[in-house]
From TrEMBL, chain A:
Region forming the signal peptide: 1-24
Protein name, per record: Branched-chain amino acid ABC transporter substrate-binding protein
Residue ranges occupied by any Leucine-binding protein domain in the UniProt entry: 50-391
Record key words, sorted: Signal
Family: Belongs to the leucine-binding protein family.
SUPFAM superfamilies: Periplasmic binding protein-like I (SSF53822)
Organism: Zhengella mangrovi
Tree of life domain: Bacteria
InterPro entries to which the protein is assigned, alphabetical: Leu-bd, Peripla_BP_I
UniProtKB/TrEMBL annotation, chain B:
Domain of life: Bacteria
UniProt topology in membrane: Multi-pass membrane protein
InterPro entries assigned: ABC_transp_permease, LivM-like
Keywords, alphabetical: Cell membrane, Membrane, Transmembrane, Transmembrane helix
Main location per the UniProt record: membrane
Keyword Transmembrane attributed: yes
Transmembrane segment boundaries: 12-30, 36-56, 89-107, 114-135, 167-184, 196-213, 219-240, 252-279, 291-312
Protein name stated in the entry: Branched-chain amino acid ABC transporter permease
Organism from which the protein derives: Zhengella mangrovi
PANTHER family found in the cross-reference section: HIGH-AFFINITY BRANCHED-CHAIN AMINO ACID TRANSPORT SYSTEM PERMEASE, HIGH-AFFINITY BRANCHED-CHAIN AMINO ACID TRANSPORT SYSTEM PERMEASE PROTEIN LIVM
From TrEMBL, chain C:
Membrane topology: Multi-pass membrane protein
Matching Pfam families: BPD_transp_2 (PF02653)
Keywords, ordered alphabetically: Amino-acid transport, Cell membrane, Membrane, Transmembrane, Transmembrane helix, Transport
Protein name in the entry: Branched-chain amino acid ABC transporter permease
Localization in the cell: Cell membrane
Membrane-spanning residues: 6-25, 32-57, 90-111, 123-142, 162-186, 207-234, 240-257, 264-283, 289-306
Family membership: Belongs to the binding-protein-dependent transport system permease family. LivHM subfamily.
Molecular-function GO term, any one: transmembrane transporter activity
Principal location listed in the UniProt entry: membrane
GO biological process: amino acid transport
GO CC annotations on file: plasma membrane
UniProt KW Cell membrane keyword: yes
Organism from which the protein derives: Zhengella mangrovi
């Protein structure tokens, strides 16, 4: 436990150092910002994360919890505090269903905020639609999260982030043939790698995918498959742990200079530059789906203040935490704009969330909106960064991703007038 | 020692009383969360009954049972999304297909025993794990594997059991039928043949028992129960995920059947409770998921060390007045 | 007897050649070599895991599912010490020491209480221990991308145009060295004799005065050291994730099965062959996605092949 605390404190210190000379003494700004504790009847809000082997997706709900605590200390939502209840699906589909049963069916929750999981959305998408409850997720990795009616996420997920990385490689690094090393999971790796191939073909290039079973120890075969596919660029579409293993195998075979190396957001993590080692510094390009830490706009600073004031010191300060903070913030702003009489009514809250459009934050490149559709992907623009010693260097500021996949999304945005 | 097929032992009465309780009371009082937990637990009780019966009656260890549940669940989902047959027909087909898989597993059992047999079944479980992880479970897509991205197509629950309460009752009923099936077997010719085979295959052969037939039969029944359990689990969630059917889960289910007490119906119920209800309880109390692993592992070790006949065996010894006379008679069934 | 043995070897060689030939048909030699070398490294790790398992099983009758978890605990300790700036050789040694202690703790405190249970129950009980270790390790070190590096990762030899790091060579040579070493140990020393006699018949060995407990403790120790070494190499060559290292035992059991849980040489050959075939399957467009199934299919086939023609008649020993 002590170790855990020490590690977290270290991570916090890093994040803090990166955030620059933020005015730590300042109070964070949350919700109505009254400085008065809320005391009315609580509004129940749920959240589901997955934290067990093989990964911890709890950063987003931790950050959302911190923001809600801050809101409760600052007037709540029309004087009513948020009762934020978080469940852990432990990467187990039955537990995921049970978590939804508890939060959605057994309690009068008005919405779910900050969800981060690999399986929860696939299991529960139908439950949410049936109960007419909206989920403002923050850590999405699978297609169900973006292609169903009641889930909307602040983070991008693998597909846009992949396409963004591929687009940068195609435009700046001269990539003509991209090999995408993905997980052999239809709604994650295959779904997001296929989008890269489609993108490359739309630009006159080609692509291929090499798939890896998540539990299989051997990552080298997938790398070799990508290497022997004739690609000039390798896209490592993997969780950070597997991505590190692949980079390590490539380093062993000294493949660095034969290819361009690109990756989606999972490699944007402050532990990564150290873990990959000096060999890779300056050679791996990573797409960041939210603003990198050095951008440090007002919302980024407020996020750090909220985390320092209301989160546990061991809670991570990473991209998912930013996404969780944003989801909670957009939710609170929406609730505050509602008629105070309606904020406890699930149907009316869902309606208000569907009507969200044009919310802005310096953490996100584009505006945040929801809309009434069977698919939601408000965040499809990002930054490109390069791994350097001790951190990341921005190589391209906010840019829109351009791919056939986004056509219907852009059409929806035009219809809603948020473009 | 010919006994009446319909004779009810004291343990049997207790089992029937518990079944009535599970059927009538639990669904009426549980919230949505616990309905979902108990439905899962019931499905795993049925699967555990298959493992426990093979172990207690024949001394054969199957470490594939959860994998076989996956097969049943796969067939169930595939049929549901491909045709619009009633749930019951799909369930029967899932059970039968899985039974055939059980027969395939029985082939090595004709030559192997003990640890080696267990390891072959573990290899089968490992193979199934990879197949499920690679091809996933059907969710309404096209083609043989039937997988698509986006939200899953709807799942048709039984006409009788549309609500979660009704579905739990439905599951409990099927589980009771499964227990009765095992008990009936135990009291008829197969039960006598299995008892002989367990003692000595040479003796069984000398007595004219068809060993190939009865061993295969036992694997078939265990597979059938696993398949039906998988089908019911698919019905409970409407979809399945490969994480449920890892090889380590099969090992765990067997371990818990031993901990619960494979000879007794109560042991199977305890196994399923430990497998699904305890983790849900720990989760509900907010225990860190990593720490619940530790608690779970320590409990498993403790029970294996201190309760040689399983927890149900200890309970049984506490209650059984005529335990010496009847210890050999009480079975994994309900009546 | 010798004739059938020769037949087995010929059959093995022919099958391997056939599989490699079929998978590699029409591919350039360089690519084949890359996949072959990559498979050998993974195969060596399977073999090392399997060897540790077989040594312990022969001497104590316990098939240890927790060796992967012990290795994971060791590897995470090494990472932690490296983070704290501890002298690297000390950090590597710590991996072996932690795995050794974790394994010995089970072998001395828990295993004796289960000595009278049947082998399957003894085996599944170790899974409970694996869960305890894995739970503790995951609790202490929250999920985060990590890696460890050995200086030998940077050194490499060029062989037929392929770059092979010294670490990979070490693993390969170690797997052979361990087999030879343990073989000598079992054949030449008194403890080795005791182990062989325990493997042969436990009850009789105890009757003629073999120090069962001491011999078993040494076996647990050897398996703990091997678990630590395998864990360290796995963390360096494959990845440093406790869950993945823990469940590496399942393919390791496949390698152990190839040696009938008794012959170390066959475990080695089995592990290497499994690794190579698994890696070569990547070359097949239809089978590449299910390549991790290779250990299980191979082990099941091997087990059935060994048991061909036998009939079970008398209960008791397997």
């Amino acid at each position: 436990m002590k170790l855990k605390l020490a590690l977290a404190a270290f991570a916090a210190a890093c994040a803090f150092a990166l955030s620059g000379p933020a005015q730590a003494q300042d109070k964070p700004s949350c919700g109505a910002n009254t400085g008065q504790a809320a005391s009315g009847e609580p509004i129940i809000v749920g959240g589901i994360h997955g934290n067990a082997a093989p990964g911890d997706f709890s950063a987003a709900t931790d950050a959302a919890a911190a923001y809600f605590k801050c809101v409760n200390a600052n007037g709540g939502i029309h004087g009513r505090p948020v009762d934020y209840r978080v469940e852990n699906d432990q990467w187990n589909p039955e537990l995921a269903a049970q978590a939804a049963a508890k939060l959605v069916n057994d309690t009068d929750s008005v919405a779910l905020v900050g969800n981060g999981s690999f399986i929860e959305m696939a299991v529960n998408a139908a439950t949410y639609a049936k109960a007419d409850i909206m989920v403002m997720a923050a850590g999405c990795a699978i297609s169900e999260c973006f292609e169903t009616s009641n889930i909307v996420s602040t983070n991008q997920g693998p597909l846009p982030s992949n396409v963004g990385a591929a687009q940068y490689a195609q435009e700046e690094l001269g990539a003509k043939n991209i090999a995408c090393i993905g997980l052999n999971i239809p709604n994650n790796g295959i779904w997001s790698c296929q989008a890269v191939i489609d993108f490359m073909e739309s630009r006159g290039g080609t692509g291929s995918m090499a798939l890896l079973n998540p539990g299989a120890p051997d990552v080298n075969s997938a790398l070799l498959e990508a290497v022997s596919s004739g690609a000039d660029t390798i896209l490592i579409n993997q969780p950070a742990g597997l991505a590190l293993a692949i980079l390590k195998a490539a380093e062993e075979q000294d493949l660095r200079d034969q290819f361009n190396w690109i990756a989606p957001t999972p490699l944007y993590d402050l532990s990564v530059p150290d873990a990959v080692g000096e060999y890779w510094h300056g050679h791996v390009y990573v797409n960041a789906e939210l603003a990198p830490f050095q951008v440090n706009g007002p919302d980024a600073q407020n996020w750090i203040k909220v985390m320092d004031g209301f989160a546990n010191p061991e809670d991570p300060r990473d991209t998912f935490a930013q996404a969780g903070y944003l989801s909670a913030k957009f939710f609170t702003e929406t609730m505050l704009a509602m008629d105070p009489a309606d904020v406890g009514d699930r149907a009316k809250v869902s309606e208000a969330i569907r009507n969200i459009k044009g919310l802005k934050s310096d953490l996100m490149c584009g505006p945040y909106y929801v809309g009434n559709a069977d698919f939601h992907m408000p965040n499809h623009a990002g930054y490109m960064v390069k791994i350097v010693k001790g951190g990341y260097e921005i190589v391209r500021e906010c840019y829109q991703y351009d791919s056939p996949y986004f056509e219907k999304i852009i059409a929806l945005e035009k219809e809603m007038g948020v473009q | 020692m010919q006994r009446n097929l319909f004779h009810v032992t004291p343990s049997g009465w207790a089992g029937l009383a518990f079944a009535a309780f599970a059927f009538l009371v639990i669904p009426a009082v549980a919230g949505q969360l616990w309905l979902s937990v108990f439905t899962s637990a019931s499905c795993f009780a049925l699967a555990a009954a298959g493992v426990a019966f093979m172990y207690a009656r024949l001394g054969m260890v199957s470490l594939t049972q959860v994998g076989l549940m996956g097969v049943g669940g796969w067939v169930m989902l595939r049929l549901n999304h491909a045709f619009h047959l009633p749930f019951e027909i799909n369930l029967v087909i899932s059970g039968l297909v899985t039974m055939m898989c059980g027969w395939v597993l029985a082939l090595p059992a004709l030559r192997l025993r003990g640890l080696y047999l267990a390891l072959v079944t573990l290899m089968a479980a490992g193979g199934l794990e990879i197949i499920f992880a690679t091809f996933q479970f059907p969710n309404g897509g096209d083609g043989f594997w039937g997988v698509k991205t986006g939200s899953a197509a709807p799942f048709a629950r039984p006409w009788l059991a549309q609500t979660p309460e009704a579905y739990l009752r439905y599951t409990v009923l099927v589980v009771i039928l499964g227990f009765l099936l095992i008990e009936a077997h135990r009291r008829l010719a197969p039960g006598r043949a299995w008892a002989l085979i367990r003692r000595s295959e040479a003796a069984a052969m000398a007595a004219g028992v068809n060993i190939v037939l009865y061993k295969t039969w036992a694997f078939g029944i265990s597979g059938l129960l696993g398949g039906v359990a998988g089908g019911l689990l698919a019905g409970s969630l409407g979809l399945l995920d490969d994480a449920t059917f890892r090889a380590s889960e099969s090992v765990m289910l067997f371990a818990l059947a031993v901990v619960g007490g494979a000879r007794y119906w109560l042991g199977v119920v305890i196994a399923a409770t430990l497998f699904r209800v305890l983790p849900a309880l720990l989760n509900n109390w907010g225990v860190d998921a990593d720490i619940s692993y530790v608690i779970f592992g320590a409990g498993l070790l403790h029970a294996v060390i201190t309760a040689p006949n399983g927890i149900a065996g200890q309970i049984h010894d506490l209650f059984g007045k005529r335990r010496k006379a009847e210890a050999g008679e009480k079975g994994a069934g309900d009546d | 007897m010798d004739k059938s043995r020769l037949l087995n070897w010929l059959l093995y060689a022919a099958l391997m050649a056939l599989v490699i030939g079929l998978l590699g048909w029409g591919k350039p030699m360089k690519i084949l070599g890359l996949f072959f070398a990559s498979g050998l490294a993974v195969g060596s790790l399977y073999a090392l895991g399997g060897i540790g398992m077989v040594v312990l099983y022969r001497a104590s009758g316990v098939l240890n599912f927790s060796s992967g978890a012990a290795g994971a605990a060791g590897a995470m300790t090494t990472w932690q010490l490296a983070q704290w700036g501890v002298w690297p050789p000390l950090a590597w040694t710590a991996c072996v020491v932690v795995a050794l202690l974790a394994t010995l703790a089970y072998g001395m405190l828990i295993a004796p209480r289960l000595a009278w249970r049947e082998p399957v129950v003894k085996a599944v009980a170790t899974l409970g221990y694996a869960l305890i270790l894995l739970g503790l390790v995951s609790f202490i070190w929250i999920d985060d991308p990590r890696s460890i590096a050995l200086p030998t990762d940077k050194m490499a030899v060029n062989f037929l145009g392929m770059r092979i790091t010294i670490t990979r060579l070490i693993v390969f040579v170690a797997s052979i060295g361990v087999v030879v070493g343990i073989h000598q140990f079992l054949g030449r020393t008194r403890v080795g004799l005791h182990m062989r006699s325990l493997a042969n018949d436990r009850d009789l060995s105890a009757l003629i005065g073999v120090p069962v407990v001491a011999t078993e403790t040494i076996a647990w120790g050897i398996s703990g050291v091997l678990a630590g070494f395998t864990g360290l190499m796995f963390a360096d060559l494959i990845r440093l994730e406790p869950t993945v290292i823990t469940f590496m035992v399942i393919p390791s059991i496949a390698a152990a099965i190839c040696g009938r849980l008794e012959s170390l040489g066959l475990v080695l050959i089995g592990g290497l062959s499994i690794g190579v075939i698994e890696s070569m399957l990547t070359l097949s467009p239809t089978l590449k996605n299910v390549r991790p199934i290779a250990p299980f299919v191979i082990a099941a086939l091997v087990l059935l092949w060994y048991q061909r023609g036998t009939r079970l008649t008398f209960s008791g020993r397997d």
